[in-house]
Specification:
single chain, alpha+beta, Beta-clip-like, four-stranded mixed beta sheet, 12 strands
């Protein structure tokens, strides 16, 4: 890219360079090679054109900058979490909105509602955030009380969002070097965030029963709804041989649902948890173990009867 053109783009984000195609194709026939060959008159004409479309170009610049950041920090875009039948009918503004990054919740959202029923045996004031614990309750991670800062010390940039075929999107562990250890057994990986809702608010699979580990019998005090607003932890897939677990803990003055490694997790491993024995109907599970078992069963069915009998005798 010619330095003269880059210097002339003052007032626009460097992200604009990210949306210029590498090769010239229809319908625009613009490429980085073409821009490299532009002289002063062409650059002036180019700047005049983009000035006429400044709001659109500024939006493209932001998208280009996010694409650049995506290579360093994993990022989820709006189009990935929506069902879109066709892009042909989308307006320019709608297309730009689909390229916006998903806004993650840093912590759970509690919005008091008049119809939120009080919990049976609840001794605190009501209504109140049901995940808020007494100020003298120690953190399960560091044993300090109050806002201890443990959340800010959780691992960052150690995961990628990956498509796992029939299982959909999932989370892959990512080390700083190929084949390295990403999470040690017992290490906390992240917090599952969402909207706090009353008990039995939804039967959606994205609504998780929220237990209070500091109260006798660990009662369910609310639901954590993760469908509309949440974070990347909601994308962790199920496995019958999981490498992690979701567990209720007291962290930084609140009860939280934390993702914790149940064994050492290495680079390239899919982060998985168990959704519970009743989540899937028979033969509906698509985890690696069940898929391998299904393939073995199909192979056995195709074997001659005599060979299948010999296998049984060997067992």
């Amino acid at each position: 890219m010619d330095f003269t053109l880059i210097k002339s783009l003052k007032g626009f984000s460097p992200g604009l360079l990210c949306v210029i195609p590498l090769t010239s194709k229809d319908p625009y026939r613009i490429s980085q090679d073409l821009c490299h060959k532009m002289g002063e008159p062409s650059i002036d004409a180019f700047l005049a054109l983009i000035e006429q479309q400044r709001p659109l170009v500024e939006s493209l610049c932001k998208i280009g900058t996010r694409i650049q950041h995506m290579f360093l920090n994993d990022m989820e875009f709006e189009f990935e979490s929506r069902r879109i039948s066709s892009l042909d009918k989308c307006t320019e503004e709608q297309l730009l909105s689909l390229l916006q990054p998903v806004s993650y919740l840093e912590t759970n959202v509690y919005e008091p509602q008049d119809d939120w029923p009080q919990q049976t045996g609840w001794e605190e004031d009501w209504p109140v955030d049901p995940t808020l614990v007494p100020p003298d309750t120690p953190c399960d991670l560091c044993h300090a009380t109050g806002d201890c800062g443990c959340l800010s010390s959780l691992p960052k940039n150690r995961h990628h969002i990956i498509c796992y075929g029939g299982r959909g999107r999932g989370i892959q562990a990512h080390a700083t070097y190929r084949g390295g250890l990403v999470f040690s057994k017992g290490e906390y990986i992240g917090e599952l965030t969402g909207e706090l809702k009353p008990l039995n608010w939804s039967r959606d699979c994205m609504a998780v029963d929220f237990r209070r580990p500091d109260i006798y019998d660990e009662p369910v005090v609310c639901q954590l709804y993760c469908k509309e607003r949440s974070n990347w932890v909601r994308l962790v897939n199920h496995s019958c041989e999981p490498c992690a677990v979701l567990i209720a803990n007291i962290v930084s003055g609140k009860a939280r649902i934390m993702l914790r490694a149940s064994r050492d997790i290495w680079d390239g491993t899919e982060l998985t948890i168990s959704y519970g024995s009743g989540f899937f109907k028979r033969d509906d599970c698509l985890c690696e173990r069940c898929e391998a078992r299904s393939k073995r069963a199909e192979t056995t069915l195709r074997m001659p009867e005599v060979y299948r009998q010999s296998l049984r005798l060997r067992e």
